[in-house]
Amino acid sequence: MTPLQKQGWAGLALLLLIPAWVLAASNTTFIEHPMIVVRELPPFLANPETWSNIGITLARVAAGLALGVVAGFVAAFVMTRSRFLGEVLGYYVTAALRTPSAIAAILALAIFKGSETGYALVVAFITFPYMAVGLRDGLANADRDLDEMSQVYHLGLLAQIRHVWAPYVAPFIFAALRNAHALAWKVIVVAEIFGAAKTGFGAKFEHAWSYMLMTEVHLWLLVFMVIVLFAEYGLIRQAEKFVFRWR
Amino acid sequence: MTQETRPSILKCEDLGVSYGAVPAVGRLDFDIRKGEFVAILGPSGCGKSSMLNVISGLRAPTRGRVHVKDQELFTPASKPPRLGYVFQSHRLLPWRTVRQNLEIALAASEVPRRDWEARIDEILSILHIAQFKDAWPMRLSGGQRQRVSIARALLVDPAYILMDEPLSTLDEVTARSLRQELTGICQRTDATVVFVTHSIREAVYLADRILILTRGPAEIFEDYTVPLERPRDYDDARISEVEADIVRRVQAPWGLSVEKEKAVA
Model ipTM? Predict the structure, then answer.
């Protein structure tokens, strides 16, 4: 698919949203008309407080995701190196995968009293099993032929990691990262709401909802979606395109 | 210098490989000298892969000794041999360009970086693939990929080159052209080659000597010197005669019979 075609599909998706939104707005009291939201968007974006709250949530997601990725890498590495640890850790990872994110958020925030560490740990706890399982599967399916080739040509450990293993597991890492990233955003909002945070996207969303400021609710939701879509299509998929340019 | 007076490159003495109680390689004794092109011919499952794993340094033998030049392998003090390996499939890194694949092998062989460019250009032009230097392996045909694999093997100043049925996955036209080039390149570079094949005709066309193995566990049934001068023509009647001679010799040890061949045909 050409970039122009991709943009065409994105435009069509946006166009189809507008009539659905208008229809929903005229049939409920909780959904604002798109025109009202669009009118309020410039002052909303011009407000420095908006950006500061977005920045806070972004920092929490980034910290938690980074922690989750590192923990996932360590867990996957340990699981593939030792059969005993692989079997034992496997149960923990599966349990973590199945833990409802809201419960993890409440528990972590109760323990860490709504501190920044608590937010990062919630995101890390929910995202790390995705990274661990993805990477473990990648390493377990590693191409033995290439492994043999790198031994015959005496590639050192670093060269093997850089030229053979890392590119080989890259598709597994990206698939896991996409899942983890999507989940991280959902979890942070839940955590910010449950953690009675004063700042951040979830806190502002909760505040607007409590006071029935429906335009503000929509504005926060809109900004949230734009950021998530930008991170997915503008960052992760572009990085993926670069890494897989050989295909 | 005659072949007998050339230095020994790869020498195996009483080599044996077993997997638990199951022997894969019975007993192998052979000596390959500098510049020799030696084909290994044996029936499927006779233990050729086990033998290759040992002489490539990947796996220690269960019994016997392997010497590369003057050094004995698989001792605590020995270093693994620097060799080129052309596998049945190309085994190039698909996420690296042709040039990068070659550079990785050069870096691992500790060739000074300043020499890389010239060496890569030279070897790619010898193999007629200079125009694909910056191409991704996926964009190349099977024959071109195997040429890159041969280039990688030649590039690292190998003590010897192992080739494990490198032409068996190619179409006949490409395989013929590569066979012809391979003999020229090996003579030009004075490379020592151990070439594993199932094809008797291919062995006769390419090799100076053919080590004919028995059915597994592999032992050398005959160390056969190919009685043909170079250059050779793949369609030459003399190659057919030598091929027929070898077929006659291996019929008994390989359990072949005219009836069986007819049945297969």
Answer: 0.89
